[in-house]
Amino acid sequence: MGDHPVTAQDAAQPQDPARPQASRQPQTRPELRGWDGPWTGLRALVTGLGVSGFAAADTLAELGARVVVVDGTDTAKTRRDAETLRLVGVQQVLLGPEHLSGLPLVDGELPEILVTSPGWRPDSALIRAARAAQIPVLSEVELAWRLGARPGARAPKWLVVTGTNGKTTTVTLLESMLIADGQRAIACGNIGVPVLDAIRDPQGYDSLAVELSSFQLEYTELLSPVASAVLNIAEDHVDWHGSFEAYRAAKAKIYENTELACVYNADQQITEDMVAEADVQEGCRAIGFTTGSPGLSMLGVVEDLLVDRAFLEDRAHQALELAGLEDFGPLAPQHLIANTLAAAALARAAGAAPEAIRAAVQGYEAGDHRIQPVAKADDVLWINDSKATNPHAAAASLRSFTDVIWIAGGLPKGVLYDELIAEVAPRLRRVILIGTDSSQLRSSLERHAPGVPVIGGRLREDESRSAVDASLADEDGARAMRAAVAEAAKALAPHHTVLMAPAAASMDQFASYAARGEAFIEAVTELMTD
Asked: Has 169 been labeled as part of a binding site?
């Protein structure tokens, strides 16, 4: 493997990020840094007893803080977790909704800091009360960054990733690239392993592949990553943040104080604008990725090769081959290629060799419910993409196929569908809408894809609502999915793809997107065995 010449015309090098400066320190309680900081006796409130909240409470207790935990649920699991935390020194665990209306006292006084789990909205009573009392509100991610590696353990490079879609795929690939390079690395953050657990590892890591949600970034003042990436931005979680502008601002925080590389999506101007607006460390570079031919300081695709024109000296005339499209196997959707290039940029910033990139690509297996082939019969492909919970994710799926029978619908989370439908209308052959109220999606289809037959999505009061419409809107998700699969089967023709990519959340009919995906798989299996 060696340098691969690039024949495409070079693009201009992207603008360097604005206002480079030396590494900054936090402005809020700056003395709370390191394992030897003044944690002993600190009055700390932790909101949420999920995975990250448990790790935060456990860590603060280990540091000698006086810790109170609040969680709105009182279940057998939270009671077990509460007992475990009491055994390791947590002062008090308050379970149940009655504890959510006001700030609890710690040792008879207000807390000095609040460490919140990512699910807690900024307008929740406890968060608003803390801010009104000028109590610092930190994410568990910022707490991990402030502490750093455990004394005696190696200090890791932080490689951080956010975006509306593709975060988990990207950090999973990034972890594989780093491990293939011989580094001790772990994927953590929003992917399941709390960052606090990673930094408390006695041995430590060479690199952390950190997935960050907009919720976590909302409560993070400042990190100091070696490299950072925003994969894409589209309307999502507008109901949680209050506006798209607030959502964008939370995502943009990931670039602040980056040391070596701000990785952005060259096919989406908004991410490059975020880099240009960021305060970064002196010498930090803007590194783009694109599924087209890359310009200078970019990674991209030339013919059937993924190439690097950023992390080599003669990038003006050459590109380094990283992998081939054939390394992905039979299915290489455009969004997977983009996520791979973003992961490769971060891995290269951490010193990974090109051979490690290819090894990770060859070993990659897509997770369940993400463009997951379920069945193929009579030249018809059935695809489960239940993880496509917003229009941007659904668009990535729909771009991968033509002649689509699309199963969609669910909770829209405050997003709009017109742009999605206008783009993908030529690919649609029929649309089947599940969800207790998918009328907004149906309305967009009627405006922007008037020639495409649509089943479902009518309001209860609609006189033309049929028994099939009622089944698709049933609160029993399994029943609704069986109805959707049955309707899809009626319209099949050779070369069609039945794609379940809902572009909406699942909670109106299912416990989770995974439960929705399993319901689709079961319904297709029943159809094939009839």
From this structure: yes
